[in-house]
Specification:
Keywords: Hydrolase, Metal-binding
Order of helices and strands: EEEEEHEHEHEEEEEHEEHHH
CATH topology: Metallo-beta-lactamase, Chain A
Shape: globular
InterPro entries: Metallo-B-lactamas, Mito_Persulfide_Diox, POD-like_MBL-fold, RibonucZ/Hydroxyglut_hydro
Strand content: 15-25%
Number of strands: 14
Distance between the termini: 46 Å
Pfam families: Lactamase_B (PF00753)
CATH superfamily: Ribonuclease Z/Hydroxyacylglutathione hydrolase-like
Helix content: 10-25%
Number of domains: 1
CATH class: Alpha Beta
Structural class: alpha/beta
Organism: Polynucleobacter paneuropaeus
CATH architecture: 4-Layer Sandwich
GO molecular function, one term: sulfur dioxygenase activity
Strand order of the largest sheet: 1-2-3-6-7-8
Length: 288
């Protein structure tokens, strides 16, 4: 297919997260989608091993970083977007509705007055259906709310990078019980993705393989329409919402939700250092 991108995928095993580098050829422009900053919840220490692997690949391929994209403010891993930008450049971008997410979590975490819930921490706020330049590749942003009110998917050539809207067919779809989540909206968002041609490649942000199968990061629209356990063809919106609501009521909070969201709404920067020169994250007790 014309303008089909090359995709190099990196897997962060502790968070089951895929980071994708999307480009046309060595030496071309590229986009980095959903990067990972390593975080140890026991010690509170961060490291950059996963991000450094991406940076090494970009330099080896002589790629020019045009975009460092987030599909949403993740609750299961910290973004390395700011770190990567400092080393290889690029514009940090996320959907414009991040402002709603920032406003909610500024209140939940009682963040400092100076924190602006206006998306200004990012270089660019993406509009629904906006086309983003990426060399000779065609890239379009899809607004796909439901998991969060700010989720975006990115259509690049014959591939869609779906974020957390959906997973491999035997895993299903994203939870909708975070602040601003909406199962009705998620149903419509996934159906929009699945309206693309059957051969369209779908790149996952996560995989949680059941029954000891190997980790997989790419599938197709046709495969998902036939076999997705939550939203295959024939599943009504009413049935989906009932299933999603019941399932979400049984799920625990992600292990890294509290540190992740605080860093991710800041585009990967840490909270301002306090008088002793240390940055701190907050844990709201008995709130979530």
């Amino acid at each position: 297919m014309e303008n089909a991108p090359i995709v190099k995928t990196f897997f962060d095993a502790p968070t089951w997260t895929f980071t994708h580098v999307v480009y046309e050829e060595p030496g071309s422009q590229c986009a980095i989608i959903d990067s990972v900053l390593n975080y140890d919840p026991k010690s509170g220490r961060t490291s950059t091993q996963s991000a450094d692997e991406v940076i090494e690949f970009i330099r080896h391929q002589n790629l020019q970083v045009n975009w460092i994209l987030e599909t949403h403010a993740h609750a299961d891993h910290l973004t390395a977007g700011s770190y990567i930008k400092k080393h290889v450049g690029g514009k940090l971008a996320i959907g414009k509705h991040i402002q709603e997410v920032q406003a909610v979590f500024k209140n939940i975490f009682h963040l400092e007055d100076a924190f602006q819930a206006n998306g200004s921490q990012f270089d660019h706020l993406i509009e629904a259906d906006e086309e983003l330049p990426l060399g000779n590749l065609k890239m379009k942003a899809l607004f796909v709310p439901g998991h969060t009110p700010a989720c975006m998917a990115y259509v690049i050539g014959d591939a869609i990078f779906v974020g957390d809207t959906m997973f491999m067919a035997d895993v299903g779809t994203a939870r909708c019980d975070f602040p601003g989540g909406d199962a009705h909206a998620l149903y419509k968002s996934v159906k929009r993705i699945l309206s693309f041609p059957d051969e369209t490649r779908l790149y996952m942000c996560h995989d949680y393989p059941p029954n000891d199968r190997e980790v997989v990061y790419v599938t197709t629209v046709g495969e998902e329409r036939q076999h997705n356990i939550h939203i295959h063809d024939g599943i009504s919106e009413q049935d989906f919402v009932a299933m999603r609501t019941a399932r979400d009521s049984t799920l625990e909070m992600p292990v890294l939700i509290l540190p992740s969201v605080q860093v991710n709404i800041r585009a990967g920067e840490f909270p301002p250092k306090e008088a002793n020169g240390v940055s701190y994250l907050k844990i709201p007790l008995n709130y979530l």
